[in-house]
Amino acid sequence: MLLHDADLDDDLKAIAHKVESNERINFEEGVLLYEKAELPYLGILAHYIRQKRHENNVYFNRNFHIEPTNLCVYDCKFCSYSRLIKQKMEGWEYSMEDMLNIVKKYDDQPVTEVHIVGGVLPKYDVDFYATLFTAIRNHRPSLHIKGLTPVEYHYIFKKAKLDYASGMKLMKEAGLNSMPGGGAEIFHPEIREQIAKDKCTAEQWLQIHEEWHRLGMRSNATMLYGHIESYKHRVDHMEQLRQLQDRTAGFQTFIPLKFRNQDNQMSHIAEVSIIEDLRNYAISRIYLDNFDHIKAYWAMIGRSTAQLALNFGVDDIDGTLDDTTKIYSMAGSEEQHPAMSTQELVMFIKEVGYRPIERDTLYHVITDYHDFQFSEKIKSKYYNLPIIS
Fold it and tell me: FRET label pair with 269: which of 80, 110, 131, 316, CA 20 to 30 Å apart?
């Protein structure tokens, strides 16, 4: 691989040897990758790991989002999505009926997951979400409910005077199937205090996931990168995730989330380049050796970058979404109305030489689209080309 490159730095060659030997790199080596490694080197290592684990497969699912509200009691500096309660006229608050109607809208469609996450408001308490999860489960038992981050759970459990273990058990009994990875931001208090000091701490975020994993359940993890953090803060974040995963094996997927600077309190900070995005995906794949999947959320980084990321350790690109999320479009992402049909996602993956695999939330294969052939009409719609008879 890279071991015979005479021009390669000795430290980077040693890391390449570890990767080829399936050995774990340490914290200092993780920082060194950020500081010294160039994109081609990182791409070779990350792609080696990705292909070894998943061959040419790229996973996606059929999903939609419910965002109960964008009003929030917290004031995160990086957030373009939320509005404070005093800004109520700029926000929305869905009722229980509103949310169930969104679910019912998909009754005749083969979606497999509803993703529920939004702002934090006192009216959305433990009883509200337990009732909502149960109602969705009763209406459509096969629909996987992936709901709420530790930021929301910490708030509603504290308000209800529930410890984390009891609270997560209650959510599981109500119908919750898995947890998304949001709210992690950057764990190190040096940064967290500056960008999100009001909400749950890193320790509380990790503890809630650990309690969920103890119930035999699965969750995802994220990291918000590209703002005021240093490389050491990124590696510290991944190290804490890696240590929890060693204990529980409950995480499925790691999703790096790019800081977008439109309409928030950190708009003065320039966004990092696509090169840095790809470097970050690659280092995530190399460092998080006990995570099965690395996801590039196409609605956040744009379709072209998501396709490129498949060569830098990424094996998952999320799902159809159906224009049901506003979190990143409000922050200035390339996708202002994020939606792709299953056919479009399959074409999107095949276009760059990979094998499209529709999965459920827990990565069971639903459909392998490797040999699926589209009609010329569908191809012309995807590529926006005229049909030649």
Answer: 316
Amino acid at 78: F
Helix, strand or coil, per DSSP, at residue 316? strand
Give tens-digit pLDDT for 290-320: 999 999 988 888 889 999 999 999 999 988 7
**Alpha-carbon gap, residue 117 to 148, rounded angstroms:** 5
Pairing of the two strands 251-258 and 218-225: parallel
What pLDDT, in 10s, does the model give residues 96-114? 999 999 999 999 999 999 9
Concatenated DSSP letters for 237-249? HHHHHHHHHHHH-
May I ask the CATH class of domain 53-383? alpha beta
Question: Global pTM?
Answer: 0.90
3-state helix, strand, coil in the chain (%, to 5): 45, 15, 40
Both tokens assigned to 202: 């890193």
Rounded to whole angstroms, how far apart are CA atoms 249 and 222?
A: 16
Supply the mean pLDDT for the chain.
89
CB atoms within 10 A of CB 165: 16
What are the tens digits of pLDDT across the range 349-363?
999 999 999 999 999
Whole-Å CA distances, 290 to 77, 154, 212, 218, 377: 31, 26, 18, 14, 43
Taking alpha carbons only, the member of 95, 93, 149, 146 closest to residue 121 is 93
Q: Which H/E stretch holds residue 160?
A: helix 150-160
pLDDT at 378: 55
Model pLDDT for residues 12-26, shown as the tens digit of each residue: 999 999 999 999 999
Q: Where are the domains of the chain?
A: 10-48, 53-383
158: Cα within 13 Å, side-chain hemisphere: 13
Of 28, 119, 109, residue with least CA distance to 70:
119
